[in-house]
Amino acid sequence: MPINMQLINALAVAMSVSPAAAAIKGFNYGSTFNDNSVKVQSDFESEFKTAAGLVGAEDFTSARLYTMIQGGTTNTPISAIPAAIATNTTLLLGLWASGDTFDNEVAALKSAISQYGSDFASLVVGISVGSEDLYRNSPTGIAASAGIGKNPDDIVNDIKTVRSTISGTGLADVPVGHVDTWTAWYNSSNNAVIEAVDWLGLDAYPYFQNTQSNDITSGKSLFQDAINKVNTASNNKALWVTETGWPVSGDKENLAVASTDNAKTYWDEVGCGLLFDKVNTYWYILQDAGKTTPSPSFGLVGSELTTTPLYNLTCPAVVSSSTSATSSATSTGSSGSTGSATGSATSSPTSVPASNATGTPTGTATGVASGTATSSATGTATGFSTGAASTGTSTPTGTPGASGTSTPTGTPGSATTPAGATGTHASGTSSSTSPAFTGAANTVSASVTGIVAAIFAAVVAF
Ligand SMILES: *[C@@H]1O[C@H](CO)[C@@H](O)[C@H](O)[C@H]1NC(C)=O
Ligand SMILES: *[C@@H]1O[C@H](CO)[C@@H](O)[C@H](O)[C@H]1NC(C)=O
Ligand SMILES: *[C@@H]1O[C@H](CO)[C@@H](O)[C@H](O)[C@H]1NC(C)=O
Ligand SMILES: *[C@@H]1O[C@H](CO)[C@@H](O)[C@H](O)[C@H]1NC(C)=O
């Protein structure tokens, strides 16, 4: 193990704090099944109830949507909304921004606000304007036939439209973001979008990073590298993980083997180890094999919608020790507010030889958090930014990494073209639950052609 990885691991422990019982946990939900049939309210209700009862993960009660529009309609609000109200499921709304249906997305958002009122508003935890639009408009996205994307200036305009749409409504205080691949967030030509959002949504799949050494034992470090890259570009905006996961079945991607065992390892190391209760996280995915099974398949349950998962989702107990650490940081929010945050960390000596690392910790919280972490290890850290962008307080949470060590990696994500947008994308429709492998280093899906290593190499160079 190279020293920088030791440092990353040491700091992941040293900077790990647990203030964030508030961190959101949930799953992604497409508007259609894998066979393109449209989900109706009872389908969403079944999925949400299953999520709320999923053994070992009963608290994954938030749902990320990709579109506001019910499948098969022009601009009727998606039936996931009444299903969420019926099941007390919180919502990360999504407006599909590419193509020519954005006006319909906004109309559906307006209708939902007036039709469902405070029952709806009280469940909405975020709004994403677009999903991987910038990636699809990049050379790699175009080369991969990923579909129609959108330019950063247009995404910024869409964000403004959504902000004015929710102004003065029950959703006025909901944080507005955008979801994209790490390569898009790391591309400085897209900085206007970073300036426009309250939070950055990141999709990352080490399994698809097939130009790299991506066996499951590297899954956690590849994921961490992607996070570190985005954090360097994020201008201290909060980072949400909007898609990640490891498939239970499917082709081998370079060294990455799709298997139930590996999916569990990834859940334990990345989900339990880095994300859950620390960073707002939407795992990919509760079920993607409802009618037909895609390849690869990422579902925590198989073709039967059941609360018994394919593998044990109960997070391994964290071995606590007498070594606890406090970290403090002062933060300067982008709005100019300053605050400070302290947290305590419990290190887990069984997992990390954390005793000798030294360095200068720089935690990233809501604002620019530069602080000192004291524990059995100190080091250079770049943490997730998890605080609400509108507040001046910062919460330095874990998953720091050593600076200068990350490798540009692809972060394929879900295209999940909403049914409401059918026909507006050059590549036609894609299943709402098929990951479209839209990252720089990904390969093939039913709707996306392969992307060669040479293309990835070009991306690495930027
Ligand atoms: C809904 O869930 C929230 C937690 O997300 C809980 O505080 C609240 O009591 C629930 N409401 C109902 C009606 O079950
Ligand atoms: C960087 O972003 C701009 C604007 O979205 C895009 O035109 C350009 O192709 C991107 N470059 C790469 C290498 O992805
Ligand atoms: C599931 O994992 C948890 C945490 O490691 C463990 O305590 C529990 O015994 C496991 N359950 C089963 C059925 O193996
Ligand atoms: C700490 O130092 C000891 C002795 O030099 C060494 O064996 C060990 O690998 C070091 N640990 C780390 C995390 O660098």
Automatic annotation (TrEMBL):
This is Probable glucan endo-1,3-beta-glucosidase eglC. It comes from Talaromyces amestolkiae. It catalyses: Hydrolysis of (1->3)-beta-D-glucosidic linkages in (1->3)-beta-D-glucans. Its EC number is 3.2.1.39. The lineage of its organism: Eukaryota, Fungi, Dikarya, Ascomycota, Pezizomycotina. The keyword Cell membrane applies. It is a lipid-anchor; GPI-anchor. Its main location: membrane. One of its GO terms (biological process) is polysaccharide catabolic process. It comes from the Eukaryota. Keywords: Carbohydrate metabolism, Cell membrane, Cell wall, Cell wall biogenesis/degradation, Glycoprotein, GPI-anchor, Hydrolase, Lipoprotein, Membrane, Polysaccharide degradation, Secreted, Signal. Gene3D superfamilies: Glycosidases. Residues 322-437 are annotated as: Disordered. One of its GO terms (cellular component) is fungal-type cell wall. It is found in: Cell membrane; Secreted, Cell wall.
